[in-house]
Amino acid sequence: MTDLMMESTLVSPPTRLWVPKHVMITRPAADLPHTAEIIRRCESAGVDDIRVMPGNALTGLKGASERETYAKAKNTLAVVVAPPSTLKPQPIPPSADWRVDLAKGCPAHCQYCYLAGSLAGPPVTRVYANIDDVLAGIRTHAGRGAITSGTVERGHEGTTFEMSCYTDPLGIENVTGSLAAAISRVGSGEFGDDVQLRFTTKFDDVGELVTLDHQRRTRVRFSVNAADVANRFEGGTARMPARLAALRSMALAGYRVGLTIAPIMPVPGWREQYGSLLDDVATALADIPDLDLTAEIITHRFTPSSKEVLLGWYPNTKLEMDEASRSQKRSKFGGVKYVYPKQTMAEMRAWFTAELERRLPAARLLYWT
Q1: What secondary structure letter does DSSP report for 323?
Q2: Top-confidence residue, 66 or 332
Q3: Is the peptide bond before 169 cis (omega within 30 degrees of 0)?
Q4: Which uninterrupted H or E stretch holds 364?
Q5: Who's near 118: CB < 8 A, 6+ residues apart?
Q6: Burial class (CB in 10 A: 0-12, 13-18, 19+), 146
Q7: Is the pLDDT of residue 2 over 60?
Q8: 329: left (phi over 0), alpha (psi -120 to 50) or beta
Q9: What pLDDT is recorded for position 117?
Q10: By the 8 A CB rule, do 159 and 194 touch?
């Protein structure tokens, strides 16, 4: 066995594991096979409050204040049945051809949370027990799509299915097993040879994933950021060194890997901080055989509704959300996002494009937004 192969089997214990205090199982989900696996994992993790609800409703999540409701929801895993509207894959540019949701909600405490304002009700994490129905969309939509499937630039990726649009699937994997199930089934060729799963994570619990027969049909991207951003705004996640160690472990195990550098913020000394980050990534990925590395770069933005929700969750946040210092970006449906001014965006884009090529020449930049 080569040194690299030996190293790929030596994965550091996870530095951050989420274990819910409460597990609520809706009645329609109670008897599904995947629910039994979720219960087994939760019990193994030490969860002793596992309840089957009398119906579909998730009750008892409201607290005396918004903060109390937030805290209770963030400590709860709900096992539910994905509704028909969720089962139909939706286009998800510029990341992938289609979106496939294993869950909705995330246990992390990122003060810029992308889910704020887009998910109704308390921020409980809902995992879908009808995993066969969820994954069935891969079969029906393979060979279709406009982002990777059939394109010149990314056609070699096959038809791509994004699993982290509404959750961090690795962050809940130790109590769900949904990610391993998806990776294994796609790796086995159940849905054809020309499909690829992809997900982004801020966690490092990859011990089970490196043992799977994935057949390079899954790309895992680690969400990375400058030290000031990650340390201040990304609560409840694995620290950056742990993420980079997990990145190396996954690459050594033959996975296609990537960086989601997001959300970029022009914090003081941002060039130096992001430069150090890119250098750390280069060190982590040194000497990886057959490295397939991508980069996706996303600048910070917010909407009026997400700002309102985030300030309710994190009233003392130091996150800059000043509309007066931002530019408005309108969607075709009239929605408003606040992004950095054109000059700031151009400056950051030029720097990242040049430095990514210089410090990480193996990385393919998929998009900047």
Answers
A1: G
A2: 66
A3: no
A4: strand 363-368
A5: 166, 306
A6: exposed
A7: no
A8: beta
A9: 77
A10: yes
Token pair belonging to 139: 């079969």
Say if residues 107 and 20 touch (Cβ distance below 8 Å): yes
Could you tell me which residues are beta bridge partners of residue 126?
Answer: 78, 104
* pTM assigned to the model: 0.94
Tokens matching residue 268: 């003081």
CB count within 10 Å of CB 310 equals 20
Tell me the pLDDT of the chain averaged across its residues.
94
Which pLDDT value is given to residue 243? 98
Cα four-point dihedral sign 16, 22, 26, 27: positive
What is 118-186 written as a DSSP string? TS-SS--EEEES-HHHHHHHHHHHTT--SSSTT-TTTGGG-EEEE--SS--TTTTHHHH-HHHHHHHHH
- 299 backbone φψ class: left, alpha, beta (φ>0; ψ -120 to 50): beta
Peptide bond into 122 cis (omega under 30): no
Residue 359 to residue 353: CA distance in whole angstroms: 10
242-274 tens-digit pLDDT? 999 999 999 999 999 999 999 999 999 999 999
Q: Which two tokens stand for residue 143?
A: 């060979």
Collapsed DSSP state (helix, strand, coil) of residue 77: strand
Q: How many CA atoms lie within 13 A of 178 on its CB side?
A: 32
Find out whether 204 and 153 touch, Cβ atoms under 8 Å: no
Q: What is the pLDDT of residue 9?
A: 52
Which residue's structure tokens are 């996706």? 296
Which residue, among 37, 35, 30, has the nearest Cα to 55 in the 3D structure? 30
- Cα distance between residue 366 and residue 296, in whole Å: 6
Number of residues that make up the chain: 369
Give the per-residue pLDDT at 4: 46
Instruction: Specify whether the CB–CB gap between 218 and 255 falls below 8 A.
Output: yes
Query: 272-299: per-residue pLDDT in tens?
Result: 999 999 999 999 999 999 999 999 999 9
